[in-house]
Amino acid sequence: MAAFKATSAQERVIMGIDPGTKAMGYGIVRLCSQHLEILQLGVIHLSKYAHQAQKLHTIWEGLHQLVEDFAPDEVALEAPFYGKNIQSTLKLGRAQGVAMAVALSKGIPIVEYAPRKVKQAITGNGNASKEQVATMLRRQFSLEELPSLLDATDALAVAVCHAWQRQAPARGKAKNWASFIAAHPERVKQS
User: Fold this and answer.
1) What is the 3-state secondary structure (H, E, C) of 22-61?
2) Is 73 a catalytic residue?
3) Is 18 part of the annotated catalytic residue set?
4) How many Å is the maximal CA-CA distance in the chain?
5) Band of the pLDDT at 50, cuts 50, 70, 90?
6) Angle at CA 12, nearest 5°, toward 43 and 73?
7) pLDDT digits (tens, 9 = 90+) for 66-109
8) Which of 61, 74, 151, 186 is catalytic?
9) Is 68 marked active-site?
10) Domains and CATH numbers, the chain
């Protein structure tokens, strides 16, 4: 497959990654002016591998292939949360490190976002559930159905959050909700 590439200086391809040790979600979007388009959405399945080294190798190969196919200009990762189980946190950190290494090996800039920031950007609520995030993305992109694993929509949310952060100075010019809505009709779902 030939590498997908952004066609203009205003166009950016962003890969969002939701690191995981059972499934690693990815979402790839194209940002052109104010328009976002999903290019690819899915997960790298890892639960079938018994050993951590196999999982890390699978992450490397899967993300490397996606980088080759879509040539992202930027990678946005969900920062790991810190749980009570130190072993799980360490394994998650390794998975994130491999994802970062893939991007760094190709000279792609990396940005991290806290899970609360991503949820806040997508739903307006930093404590939103995975299902709420997925539902908002389904509406925004008019998706007919959601992936069976919400790691994919979590990764898409990271990419979308990053795309909106890139546009923050332009969005910040709105004086009130009416002017914001007029400037960004794609962000409002009509019922």
Assistant:
1) CEEEEEEEEEECCEEEEEEEEEEECCCCCCHHHHHHHHHH
2) no
3) yes
4) 54
5) very high
6) 65
7) 999 999 999 999 997 766 788 888 899 999 999 999 999 999 99
8) 151
9) no
10) 11-187 (3.30.420.10)
Residue 49 — very low, low, confident or very high, per pLDDT cuts 50/70/90? very high
Q: Which of 68, 69, 78, 154 is catalytic?
A: 78
Closest-CA residue to 12 (of 4, 20, 22):
4
Number of residues assigned to the chain:
191
Reported as a single tens digit per residue, the pLDDT across 2-43 is 455 555 557 999 999 999 999 999 999 999 988 999 999 999
Q: Are 56 and 98 a contacting pair, CB within 8 Å? A: yes
CA-to-CA separations, 130 to 51, 78, 152, 170, in angstroms, rounded = 27, 13, 10, 28
Measured in whole angstroms, how far is the alpha carbon of residue 79 from the centre of its chain? 11
